[in-house]
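=== RUN LOG ===
request id: a7f3
mode: sequence -> structure
chains: 1
length: 258
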Amino acid sequence: MSIADTVRRLVEAGATPEVIAIAVEAIEQAGQKKPRSSAAERQARYEERKRQKASESVISDVRPGANSDAQNDASLPLPPSPQTPQPPTPSREIKPPIVPQADKPAGPSRRKPKRAIPDGFPTAELIAEQQAKARSVGANLDVANQAERFRNWSIGNDARYADWAATWRNWCDRAIKNAPKTAVAASQSRSAPSEADRWRRWLREYRLNGHWPSDDAGPRPGHPACRVPAALLFEFGHAPAPAANDHKPDLFAQGDAA
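=== RESULT ===
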């Protein structure tokens, strides 16, 4: 690059006269040097390239629009950045000790704890109570046997209840309900047919097949000694309607034919 070209570029870049003079002197000194050996020439060319790079860097620094302050700041070493503060290590949260259930103040509780069947339960008194209950309703039930079954079932199934007396009563109630009735209770539960129903049954059989149970009902209808009430004889067509002034027998009264 010639001196004129260098000066022109420096002027276009807005370089100061001092910078232009330094650049011109450097070029003139390079041109006035005597020829050297090949090694010396290589060294000279190296030095010239270094000076040219230096002059070009000066030109780029003084160009219009260049932010020289920012570049100067960028060339300066950055101050050591402060160490990023680390968040403080959280201290271990101290929880209050857990109070055992037994140590808590006992408040009003309506729920009883469940437990296994007590020893010797059901007692002889409870067995006798349920046996009397079964006898009163005519249930043919051995409550002592039920007590043994109840205890074996409770132990075998590891049953746990809050109220064993109530559980025993419920067991006996089911057993009494499903137990067969005694002979006396069965006979009492069967209601005896009324007198009128028995006469009607005999009269119905007599009309269908002509059979009359003389041993129980006496002489058959139409006989002067027939004991069938006149209203029933008229109902089945064996006699005319009774007169209005005739005494009407009580059809539901117990008769000798029973």
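=== NOTES ===
The radius of gyration is 66 Å.
Residues 251-258 have pLDDT under 50 and may be disordered.
=== END ===
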